[in-house]
Amino acid sequence: MALPAGVTTATLTFGSPASGFAGEGVSTSITVVPSVSLTHIATGAPLLAFSITAEASEGMPGQVTLPHTDQDGFQDANGNAFKNWAYTVTGTHKSGKLRPIQFDKVIQLPAGNTTVDLDLIPKGDVLTFPVTAPVARVTDVAGLTGSVSADALSIALGGTGGGGAGATNAGVAAFITEAGETKTALDTNYGRVTFTEDAARAGLFYMSNGTSVDGPLALASPTYKTAALGAGSSRLRIVNFGDSTNDGFGTPGGPDSFTKTWPQLVTALLRENVVVAAGGRGWVPSSHPLDAGNYVYDDVSVLSGGTSADAIGGQVGVPGALWLQPGNGTTYDTVRWNLAAGVTAVDVVTTGYPDGTLIITSANSPADPNPVIDADGFRTLTRITNPGSWVQLEGGAGIASLGLIEYVGDDTAGVTHWNLSQGAMAAHEYAYWLNTPGEFSTAGLVEILDPHVALVNLGANDYESGRTATELADAITTLHTKIVERAPSVDVVFIIRPLADGVGETWAAYSETIVTTAATLGAHVLDLRGFAGSGYFIADGVHFTEAGNAAYADSVLDYLKVAA
Question: What is the pLDDT of residue 121?
Fold first, then answer.
C-alpha cells in the first residue's frame, strides 16, 4: 500500500558496496523502527510504527524509502500536531561464516533530502541536518593537538587562560572578532558560541548555542518530556520489569554492587541529563532476586535471625520479597537495610494480613503511623523521614517484606527508579503477576508507584523455553494492559536485548513479535538487538559485566534523554 498523497520522502541507501579488509564479500540487512505511530491529517490514514526491513546483497546497495521527519500534516494518538520524529536503525553485516558485525543508529530525515547514505551517518545522537557526505575529520583545534585543556584553548584563541570554559568562550569570541566578525555580529548572526558539557557524558564538551537533542521517547511522548523537564519540582518515576538482563545476575564477572546494574546506572545518567540532584538508590529489594550465590554484589540488605531466606517473590509478584516469621525454624525474621549517606527519607514496602504484626525501627526516627495503602489493601508504603544510617523491619506471622525505597533529597523531586526485575523470568510470568488478583498481584505496587515510564525488558526466556510467538504476543498484551490499568498516563517501552539464536526460529524473527505487538498497543520499542562490545558479557555470553551494564545504560539513556 502506498503512502498517503502529499507525504514527502527520502531514499535511505546502505551497504554500497561493503567489503572486509581482505576484500571479503559482505551482505547487509537493516531494520528501521519509527519512534511513534502517526495519523496523516489530510487523508486520515494511520502510519503505524511497524519495523521496516531491507537487505543489500554482496556487492549491491540496498535502499528503503521513508517519510521526511520534519514535515507537517501529522498528528499523534492524542490528536496533537506532530513532527520531528526519528528512526532507529539496527543492522547486521555478514560475510560467510565470519562473526556478524552489528550496528545501530538513530536518525532523522529532514525535508530537502532526496537520497541519504546511511553508511555516512556517524553513530550517535539524532541528526537534524542533511547528511550527504562524511563529516570532515578534525585534526586540530586552533593549532593544538592531543589532549587540549580549556585554559590552553583559551590562550590559543586569544583569551587569558585560568578561567576554564568561561575563559575559553571569551577566547573563541576574541578569535572570531580578529577574523573580521565583531562581537555584536557574532551574537546576532550566530548566537553566542559556548562550550557546553553534555549532561549525559561527563567530561565531553561540545560547541553549541543550545543543548543536546531529545531522545526518541521525548520526541514521541510530550507527556514524558514534560514530566522529565519537571523533575526539578516533582518526581519523574520509572519502573523496570525484566529478567537477569536487569538484576545483575552473573558470577564471576557480574557487577559488584546493586547500584551498578544498568537500571540503577541509567537513573544516575538521567538525573544528570535533566539536571537534578544525585538522589538515593530508589528501589532496594529485601534480598537478592534469586539465590545470593548467583550474584557478585551483596549490598541490598542484611538478614538476621536465621540461616535461610523464605523467598516469596514468585507468590507476591515482587522480586526479592521475604516471608518474615519469627520462630519458624531457621528462616530469617528480620531485614535491615544500611542506608546511603545523607538519606532524607525511606518508604518501607510491605504486605500484611489481619493476623500479622509489624515492627519498623531506624537509627533516628519512628515510622509514620499513617502509611499509604493501595486500593486493594495489599501493598503498604510506610514513610520514615530522617531515618539515619539504617532501617530495620521485623515481621510477625503473615508479614511479607517487599523492599525499600531510598531517597537522598529526591523524595519530592528528582528521578526515582524501581527495578522490579528477577532472573529467569519470562514475559508470561510477569503477565501472570500483574493479572493475578488480590494479595498475590504486582498491580497494586504499580498503582502506588504510578510511574511515568515502564521499561519492560523481557522475551528472552520465553524464546529459550520454546514458547510460541503468539504466546509471547499474548503475554506482552496482558503486561501492557495491566500496567496501563493501574497507571493510565504511563509510557510503556519494550526493550529488546541481543541474544544468540537457538534451535529453529531465530531470535531476530521471534523478537519481531515484540515490535509488531507494541505497535498495535500504542507502546514504544527500544531495539537493542545490535548491542555488542568487547568485555560486555561474562563467560556465558549472555549476562552483563560491569562494563556491559554501563554501556547498556548509555544506550537506554540515549533513548530517554531530554533536551531543555
Answer: 83
Would you call 267 helix, strand, or coil by DSSP? helix
Q: How many CA atoms lie within 13 A of 448 on its CB side?
A: 23
**DSSP code per residue over 302-322:** EEESSSB--B-HHHHT-TT-E
Kindly list the domain boundaries of the chain, sorted by start residue: 9-120, 150-208, 215-276+414-564, 277-412
Mean pLDDT of 520-540: 95
State which CATH number among 1.50.10.100, 3.40.50.1110, 1.20.120.790, 3.40.190.10 fits the domain covering 215-276+414-564: 3.40.50.1110
Is it the case that residue 165 has pLDDT exceeding 60?
A: no
- CA-nearest of 419, 418, 424 to 542 is 424
- What pLDDT was estimated at residue 94? 80
What is the distance between the alpha carbons of residues 146 and 156, in angstroms, rounded to a whole number? 14
Distinct helix (H) and strand (E) counts, the chain: 13, 27
Tally Cβ neighbours within 10 Å of residue 67.
Answer: 22
CATH class of 277-412: mainly beta
Question: Half-sphere exposure of residue 334, counting CA atoms within 13 Å on the CB side?
Answer: 13
Average pLDDT over every residue of 508-520: 96
Res 549: pLDDT: 97
Cα angle vertex 406, ends 412, 454, to 5°? 75
